[in-house]
Amino acid sequence: MKLTEAINSRHSVRQFTDQPVDRDLIKKVVKLAQQAPSWVNSQPWQVYCAMGKSLAQIKTAYHEEDLAGNHGHPDLAVMSREDWSDGTQANMKQWRHGIVHHFATFDEAHQQMTEASQTLYNSPVILYITIPKASPDWSILDAGAFGQTLMLAATDLGLGSIPTYNSVRFPDILHQILNVPDDERFIEGISLGYEKKAKINSYRSERRPLGEVLHFSD
Ligand SMILES: Cc1cc2nc3c(=O)[nH]c(=O)nc-3n(C[C@H](O)[C@H](O)[C@H](O)COP(=O)(O)O)c2cc1C
């Protein structure tokens, strides 16, 4: 697959099939992600692969938190929507309207998105990306580059993916089940697997016109 094709065809998959992902394929994806650039080649990332029993335990523990009405406390703080800049709020609003339009009614969209997030997308694999607590903000940028490289590699190798905040809402559960040292913090979880043919997966998010993003100065 050409790189431009991988870039254009990657999209967030919110429902995966039950088909497991081969360990060697996961290794290939992560090895390619390691080519991402980082500050002085610090490579701050660690990857914890939850699958099989450990992922089942995480899904059960998260479900219990959801039933108890707990929203979570991710290591990277969530900012209230009203505090974001006007432009980014408008983009998020457009995305939400797009989803409702895709499903025809607000209730259907809400139900489908809630079910997807509460089941952690039925993904057979979640790759949890951490960085040391002793890190500058630059390491978050590095982890982001690592994550995107990983998802493009996954696309190239026939796998669907979604990066989520949802999967890192309860870091204490993740530390315990995945045996992650206390001096690391969770940046995101990237679900991997085979995309299910489902309406939720046919939604495509839009992007701002290039002229609103790119500013030449010569
Ligand atoms: C850091 C990060 C966290 C995200 N968390 C979630 C999440 O918790 N739930 C979700 O459904 N999508 C999540 N997404 C996916 C975004 O909604 C998605 O990337 C965006 O709408 C663009 O769509 P696309 O990935 O299909 O191009 C997250 C994306 C990023 C980069």
Question: Could you walk me through the main structural features you see in this protein, from its secondary elements to its overall organization?
Answer:
With 218 residues, this protein is α+β, with helices and mostly antiparallel strands. The chain has one domain (3-78, 120-203): NADH Oxidase. It is built from seven helices and four strands. The chain has a four-stranded antiparallel sheet with strand order 1-2-4-3. Helix 1 packs across helix 6, helix 2 packs across helix 6 (138-156) and helix 3 (52-67) packs antiparallel against helix 7. The radius of gyration is 18 Å and the shape is globular. The N and C termini lie far apart (36 Å). 26% of the residues are buried. The mean pLDDT is 97. The site of flavin mononucleotide has 12 residues, from strand 3. This is Nitroreductase. Pfam families: Nitroreductase. Residues 7-194 form the Nitroreductase domain. Keywords: Flavoprotein, FMN, Oxidoreductase. It comes from Limosilactobacillus portuensis.
Enter the CATH topology name.
Answer: NADH Oxidase
Percent of residues in helices: 40-55%
| Biggest beta sheet attributes | 4 strands, antiparallel
CATH architecture: 3-Layer(aba) Sandwich
Q: Would you tell me the structural class of the helices and strands?
A: alpha+beta
Strand content: 5-15%
CATH class: Alpha Beta
Associated small molecules? flavin mononucleotide
Query: What is the molecular shape?
Result: globular
> How many structural domains are formed by the residues?
1
The CATH superfamily title: NADH Oxidase
Order of helices and strands: HHEHHHEHEHE
Alpha plus pi helix count: 7
Number of strands: 4
Q: How large, in whole angstroms, is the Cα Rg?
A: 18 Å
How far apart are the termini?
A: 36 Å
Strand order of the largest sheet: 1-2-4-3
The average pLDDT score comes to 97
